[in-house]
Design goal:
12% of the residues lie in helices and 34% in strands. It is mainly β. The chain folds into two domains: 63 residues; 216 residues, Fumarylacetoacetase-like, C-terminal domain (Fumarylacetoacetate hydrolase, domain 2, Alpha-Beta Complex). Strands 1, 2, 3, 4, 5, 6, 7, 8, 11, 12, 14 and 17 form a twelve-stranded mixed β-sheet that branches. A hairpin with a 2-residue loop joins strand 15 and strand 16. It starts with a strand and ends with a strand. This is Fumarylacetoacetate hydrolase family protein. Keywords: Hydrolase, Metal-binding.
Length: 292
């Protein structure tokens, strides 16, 4: 099931998407429930989905991020594809490079919730803050059942579903500070969407992640090529940290980011980014420049 958070006539709603028929069928949720996006469904704890209302044309709604304002920082995994680990280690911006190009354990950082924007929204760059903005196409995991000390073999039981994240990054800020949060958490630097897909409908072995900038394919890799797979990531984070329903984990980006080119292909105002993941859809965002 594909589930979207959207607004229509000033109201936020949550519904089942049929991309082929170009319709979304809202669930019967209160305004307070729908305000949290798909978390309203996740927290039902397997008690079933609410009844549905009449379908609405997709063109008549405005899509929001599946979880418009996550309750906590988005967990992210760095250097989690072999080729990307090498391209980043050679970039000069990798503060972890002294430990080797390929990490021995998952590198975990975070992005603040307020960096989240939906498909169709602009990624706004501020040239007074950074002049080295990059894209990173990623599969994101949405936790359905919380837990602490989750065993790797049981980890996928804790997954509600998946969505797409573009982990937009200010490379110069990432290189300047030992921690990555500032360079990763700039306003609008976490496009998410266009909707989420439940775990039962997503094929981790066959799905590929692709990124296009102005129609040029920059990234293309299978999710199965992750250095640390999703069960390992969940087990690692939950060692001492209690994961909660609605938590989001961005799993890492493949080779082909802007910093990997010579010269680097940084984002500029007017650029158009499209991130595709098989079985989910496409996340599209244009880059604009802050004017004030």
């Amino acid at each position: 099931m594909k589930v979207a958070t959207f607004t229509i006539a000033g109201e936020r709603r949550v519904g089942v998407v049929d991309p082929d028929a170009r319709i979304v069928t809202p669930f019967s949720l209160s305004a307070e429930q729908a305000s949290r996006g798909i978390v309203a469904l996740i927290e039902r704890n397997g008690t079933g989905t609410p009844r549905t209302l009449s379908p609405i044309p997709l063109d008549a709604v405005t899509l929001e991020a599946p979880i418009p304002l996550p309750a906590r920082n988005i967990f992210c995994v760095g250097k989690n594809y072999f080729e990307h680990a090498h391209e980043f280690a050679l970039s000069g911006f990798d503060s972890s490079a002294s430990g080797g190009a390929v990490p021995k354990h998952p590198i975990i950082f975070s992005k603040v919730p307020e960096s989240v924007v939906p498909t169709g929204a602009d990624v706004v760059i501020d040239p007074q803050v950074s002049v080295a903005i990059d894209y990173e196409a990623e599969l994101a995991v949405i936790i359905g059942k919380g837990g602490r000390g989750i065993a790797r073999e049981n980890a996928l039981d804790h997954v509600w579903g998946y969505t797409i994240v573009n982990d937009v990054t200010a490379r110069d800020l990432q290189g300047r500070y030992s921690q990555w949060l500032i360079g990763k958490s700039q306003d609008t630097f976490c496009p998410m969407g266009p909707w989420a897909v439940t775990r039962d409908e997503f094929d981790l072995e066959r799905a590929s992640v692709r990124c296009f900038v102005n129609g040029e394919m920059r990234q293309n890799a299978k999710v199965s090529m992750l250095i640390f797979d999703i069960p390992t990531i969940i087990a690692t984070i939950s060692q001492g940290i209690t994961l909660k329903p609605g938590d989001i984990i961005a799993t890492g980006t493949p080779v082909g980011v802007g910093i990997g080119f010579d010269p680097p292909k940084y984002l500029r105002s007017g650029d158009f980014m499209r991130v595709e993941i098989d079985g989910i859809g496409a996340l599209e965002n244009r880059v604009s420049e802050r004017t004030a």
